[in-house]
Design brief:
Elements lengths: L3 E4 L2 E2 L5 H12 L4 E9 L4 E8 L1 H18 L15 E10 L3 H19 L3 E5 L10 H5 L6 H5 L15 H6 L2 E5 L4 E7 L5 H15 L12 E8 L4 E8 L7 H14 L4 E7 L4 H10 L7 H9 L13 H4 L1 H11 L4
Parallel strand pairs: 5-7, 6-7
Antiparallel strand pairs: 1-4, 1-5, 2-4, 2-5, 3-4, 8-10, 8-11, 9-10
Helix pairs in contact: 1-2, 2-3, 7-8, 9-10
Length: 339
């Protein structure tokens, strides 16, 4: 393939395996689109699916996945720890090779128009596909979440870019979607060592998240970082959950160091890192250099230094051949099996 893009939609279902499998199957059913990874969380009640391939094939695979999610997920009954506004909560297109961010943005807007028109889902376009500066941030488009969507649709400033601007039975079921284009984003959660004070652990996670997020303007804020603190019941500890939206500005090692330093200020410690979805090879290489290895062992050094392989007892194993996007895509394309 001369042109490759990645799509990383987040669906508001992390518990019902039949629903998750149906969504993944829908994406994989499109020739030329390769499903690389699926990551589900019960407490978050959320699944992140990563697929890549030729731009038009990926866009069609995305539409099929969104359609299936709309048919299978009822937002009126959905609950979970993760913020969300709809069944397909957010869907970014990401340039990988031979495609510009601007081209991905144009494709994202065409996909959003189709989702709004054919599926009757309100769609907000964000990041590079945003129609106005105040809509660029995901957190702005998702503010109020599903519970506040009815009022949001009544606000002229928040009329959807595509799809219905009225609350009806269909919208009540599907919620809205946020579709756009962005560069690689690192979704990583930093684990706090549990103590006997669960409420205190959660409060510390939230305090750290507030300090380090770029929007806070604090002495410890990190460029390009979005963060929240939460308690994950299935793991038994609190996490500082982050989106590293510009890993050239704040990489994996820098974020880990900042969260660890903040945890120490609160008398806590970081025990490891959970990577959600896939990471690009260069991000691991950069982290490995920070941990003292700039050669062939950089990936292994990053895994050790970040504690990416410390959650085996929780069933979370960081296998580079399954978690690094270039390796997974190369393997899939070599086998020529688009699923």
């Amino acid at each position: 393939m001369e042109k490759i893009i990645e799509c990383v939609p987040n669906f508001s279902e992390g518990r019902d395996k039949r629903v998750i499998e149906a969504i993944v199957h829908a994406a994989a059913s499109m020739p030329g689109a390769y499903v690389l990874h699926t990551d589900s969380g019960e407490a978050a009640n959320r699944t992140v699916v990563t697929f890549a391939g030729e731009p038009e094939a990926v866009a069609e695979a995305a539409f099929r996945a969104v359609k299936t999610a709309a048919e299978r997920i009822d937002m009126r009954r959905q609950t979970g720890e993760h913020p969300r506004i709809g069944a397909t909560d957010v869907l970014p297109l990401v340039p990988v090779r031979g495609v510009s961010l601007a081209e991905c943005a144009g494709l994202a807007r065409r996909l959003a128009e189709r989702v709004g028109g054919e599926l009757g889902i309100p769609v907000y376009c964000y990041e590079a596909a945003a129609s106005a500066p105040y809509r660029k941030g995901l957190e702005s488009c998702r503010r109020g979440e599903y519970e506040g969507l009815r009022a949001k649709l009544e606000d002229p400033a928040w009329r959807p870019d595509f799809g219905p601007a009225v609350w009806n039975e269909s919208v009540a079921r599907t919620g809205a979607s946020v579709i756009g284009a962005r560069n690689f984003l690192g979704a990583v959660n930093f684990n706090l060592a549990p103590t006997d004070d669960r409420a205190g652990d959660l409060a510390v996670a939230k305090a750290i998240a507030k300090e380090i997020r770029a929007a806070s303007g604090s002495d410890w804020s990190l460029p390009g970082v979005k963060a929240i603190g939460w308690w994950i019941g299935e793991y038994g500890f609190a996490q500082v959950s982050t989106n590293l939206t510009d890993m050239r500005a704040t990489g994996l090692a820098q974020a880990y160091g900042a969260v660890s330093a903040a945890a120490r200020r609160y008398g806590r410690s970081v025990t490891g890192t959970e990577a959600i979805g896939l990471l690009p090879q260069w991000a691991l290489d950069d982290a490995g250099r920070c941990f003292g290895d700039s050669g062939d062992g950089a990936t292994a050094a990053a895994i050790r230094g970040l504690g990416l392989d410390t959650m085996r007892s929780q069933g979370r194993v960081f296998d580079p051949d399954e978690k690094i996007v270039e390796r997974v895509l190369a393997a899939k394309m070599t086998r020529k099996v688009p699923r």
